[in-house]
Design brief:
single chain; 223 residues; alpha/beta; TIM Barrel; 8-stranded parallel β-barrel; 11 helices; 52% helix; 16% strand
Length: 223
């Protein structure tokens, strides 16, 4: 399972790429607005230059013709852009039109297997079930991811990749990987939590303390 970073903060993205574990980015209007007043096009192009893989950025239009026009403009900003289209009636129409134009589409705000199937039929490159938002209303968001993966797996012709989105904690990533999700897109805070473990910290300190008791401050390989 690949990891994308769900943010519009370029410093967080640079760090994730530097760690060697982040291969893509997802953004949305809320994440961009969190960065303050910015030049949206300039910000997206900067992110695309940092990240080796797909960068999903969302349209704001709500009608099909507006989505298509906006998506075509956004797609010109960089070669690794995937345009985020909401899974509405207009969104499915726009997805099909954009897929015919060979523009990568990430169908977002997916909350059912039916929606995922329609996204795949329309030619979406990615579909993003929103795990956390389903959990928020008392449903099991990860079961949706598993159901989509299972359903897609029955049809080899389906090439649409599943992005587990709206990730809230490291356990979500673990379950997404076990379910066979192609990608999980995670907030920067969740990425850091995935790395950290108290027993690792204790072990590092214990090794260092034991070494210093015998060898002093001399580093391994030092004279």
């Amino acid at each position: 399972m690949r990891l994308f970073l769900d943010t519009a903060n370029t410093e967080q993205i640079r760090h994730g790429v530097k760690l060697g574990v982040i291969s893509g980015v997802t953004t949305n209007p809320s994440l961009v607005s969190a960065e303050g007043k910015v030049n949206y096009r300039k910000l997206v192009k900067e992110i695309c230059a940092i990240v080796p893989g797909p960068v999903s950025t969302e349209v704001l239009s709500q009608d099909a013709s507006g989505m298509i026009a906006e998506a075509q403009e956004i797609a010109r900003w960089a070669e690794n852009i995937a345009v985020k289209i909401p899974l509405s009636l207009a969104g499915i129409e726009a997805t099909a039109a954009l897929a015919r134009k060979k523009i990568q589409v990430n169908c977002t705000l997916c909350f059912s297997v039916n929606q995922a199937l329609l996204a795949a039929a329309a030619g979406a490159t990615f579909v993003s079930p929103f795990v956390g938002r389903l959990d928020d209303i008392g449903e099991d968001g990860m079961s949706l991811v598993a159901d989509i993966i299972e359903t897609f797996g029955r049809y080899p012709a389906i090439k649409t990749q599943v992005i587990a989105a709206s990730i809230r904690h490291p356990q979500h990533c673990l379950v997404a990987a076990a379910a066979g999700a192609h990608i999980a897109t995670v907030p920067y805070t969740v990425l850091l939590k995935m790395i950290n473990h108290p027993l690792t910290d204790i072990g590092i300190k214990r090794f260092a303390d034991d070494w210093e008791k015998v060898m002093g401050k001399t580093k391994v390989g030092g004279g």
